[in-house]
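[Amino acid chain]
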Amino acid sequence: MLDTNVLMHDPTSLFRFEEHDIFLPMMTLEELDSHKKGMSELARNARQASRSLDALVAACRDPIEQGIALSSLGNSEATGRLFLQTEAIIEALPASLPAGKADNHILGVVRALSRARTDCDVVLVSKDINMRVKARALGLTAEDYTNDKVLEDTDVLYTGVLALPEDFWERHSKQMESWQQAGTTFYRIAGPLVSELLINQFVFLESATPPFYAQVKEIRGKTAVLRVLRDYLHAKNSVWGITARNREQSFALNLLMDAECDFVTLIGQAGTGKTLLGLAAGLAQTLESRRYSEIIVTRATVPLGEDIGFLPGTEEEKMAPWMGALEDNLEVLNRGGDAAGDWGRAAATDLIRSRIRIKAMSFMRGRTFISKYLIIDEAQNLTPKQMKTLITRAGPGTKVVCVGNIAQIDTPYLTEGSSGLTYVVDRFKGWPHAGHVTLLRGERSRLADHAAEAL
């Protein structure tokens, strides 16, 4: 039995239960109907779920009481049947549960169905934690909807970085080929290690002298090509005045400055430099190398606390309060103008702002960005569907950078395993034009670092 929030979270959930039968209470249909109006993502999902139900009912040739074959719409994976509540079911619930509440009505239907159908297991599937707790308190079986989860455990999420074994050089020196090309050193290696590698993954061996940092650029059969990285830890390779402070930041800048890498994801806790690195690389490639025409910044407008109401002004003025992190990072990146005085600093600030556009996600549908540098900030609050909508806006010559912290998800019903950011990291790993780095070390301040660990 599906709760309404499952259909509103994933309108294709009707077809995700393979051989199992699905039962929809009449109250679920009522709640879908009451939520279908509006322009929100939930309203769109409610309408899509309603359309799927309408198509299933229209395709049914047998009496509806016998169930509707879910495969009737051409979905071969769903071999079960859909049952709709066709008659009133009255089941006594504890007096402490108000009878008029929709959740309690659904619980009553679950209880009645579990008693009537002793030939099978009746399971309530709901995204509402309290609903599941109440169901279990009443002796009913309840589960979360997990089909939307990319990973059950985010500890196994792809980090984009692999530490080489201590005996790497000893084991591979005899079967290793090296050459120079355009001032960069390449190595071709073979052996069992190759099976663990993915394209654009970073490998390192810090016990070597000097430390070895490389990126996997090609995998063919049992051989892989490693490219030695540019050292962004050195001041001579600074990007818009920013120098990497740790190994992972240097890896991130190698991806951000790579013209062949169209999609970059950066995950890390607060203060690891995700937005700063992305913005510095964008300014360097927009104003210095002219690779991109402008920088576009957007983010999910999910408040941390209570909503303060409607915001006045134009689209960019409405987005300004959400872009405090952008303003803070621009202030850091413009410190280099101090030597030119107030006039020089003001001129540099105006130049930078003229190349940065702040856009709301609400108006992204139908757009195509050509030769833009798109930064999606706080991407952990996006659903996989929203993430797909944004990334498919990219036209020729556009680079998309997604940054976020999956430990700070504020969107209801999203978890670390089902976030759109987790989704794209898992789906894009190994693609030759995408890269990912998990930033581990905070560089904001000793206070912020200690707070992240202790609180």
Observations:
- Residues 169 and 209 are 11 Å apart (CA to CA).
- The chain has three domains: 4-143, 154-228, 238-454.
- The chain is about 30% helix and 20% strand.
- The first strand starts at residue 22 and ends at 24.
